[in-house]
Amino acid sequence: MNRQFSLAGLLRLRQAEQTSAESGLAAANSRSASLRVRRAEAREVLADSNGNAGDSASLLAIAAARASSQSMLAELDALVASAEADADAARADYTEAKRRAVGLEKLEARHDAAIVAAQLNAEQGVLDEIASTAWHRKATP
After folding, report:
1. When you count CB atoms within 10 A of the terminal residue's CB, does the N or C end of the chain come out lower?
2. Can you give the pTM of this predicted structure?
3. Is 86 in contact with 32 (CB distance < 8 Å)?
4. Are 18 and 99 in contact (CB under 8 A)?
5. If we measure between CA atoms, which residue out of 112, 23, 20, 38 comes closest to residue 78?
């Protein structure tokens, strides 16, 4: 039996793909979390701002600021949704890469177990031969 796993190169490739997908997932999760924090902070700042209009110019400025803030929050919501979609896609890529690597890892484990079993079988054969030879030497005068 061949001592080296014949799919070792493919296994290394799959493990590299898994590592790459894992780092992509981490980056996507980090971006998504960062954008959610930015959105929450913006909402908090806007909720704390109270506009007291003393005259019509102040009222128009407050209305413009609120419209701008509404637009900014809509953009942040869109960015968060996009980042979460990217994170979901990265999660799916990672899951697929892991699935492909795990299958080969199981094959490698079976191969290694077969090698160990073959070595133990060969060793047992040698021990049996030694014991048989010693028994025959003692049995024949």
Report:
1. C
2. 0.69
3. yes
4. no
5. 38
Structure tokens at 88: 């979901």
Highest mean pLDDT among 22-26, 48-52, 65-69, 72-76: 22-26
- Rounded distance between C-alpha atoms, residue 122 and residue 140, angstroms: 27
* Rg (the chain; Cα; Å): 34
Tens of pLDDT, residue by residue over 29-47, are: 999 999 999 999 888 887 7
Task: Report how far residue 89's alpha carbon sits from residue 94's, in angstroms, rounded to the nearest whole number.
Answer: 9
Q: Kindly report, residue by residue over 69-87, the tens digit of the pLDDT.
A: 888 999 999 999 999 999 9
User: The tokens 């908090």 sit on which residue?
Assistant: 44
Closest C-alpha among 10, 31, 11, 13 to residue 90: 31
